[in-house]
Amino acid sequence: MTAISMTPRLQIDGAVLRPWALTDAETLVTGWSDPDVAAWNSVPSTPTVALATRWIAGVHDRAANRQSIDWVIQSHDTNGVVGEVGLSGFSDAHRGALIGYWLLPAGRGHGSATAAVSAVTKWAHQTLSLDTIVARCNTSNTASQQVAARAGYRHERSDPTGHQLWISRTRES
Asked: Which of 12, 22, 78, 79 has the greatest number of C-beta atoms within 10 Å?
């Protein structure tokens, strides 16, 4: 699989996807502390700026080692961070990855998550030559399911824990 030396900036409607910066630490704590984000995502039990700074400091190494590639969603309207989208769980055997995303309240309801997921999916299929990208959605998280559907993912099945697997493929299997 293609190595990642740098997380690229991607333009989407109304926002830009860019790498996390140390100056985003407080915003990351806000995201981790948001009840809706915490309900559906793995977040630290006690989010702190120090922990967020440490996590952000490792973003480039995680991308270079193909552990994860993470972007902030920065709104053109407010010039502020309104969410995150990222790839993780890379599989050489399946030429695939997982995609995850979350939005702060200010970013919800504007199509930012759908645009971000669509852009990262297209980039990953084309640039990383990934065949399969999976959005793993809790059955109660209808907003996440709607984002996946609007971004062109298809609900194919559920995993053993009951999470819905929404999948984007470069070709039909």
From this structure: 12
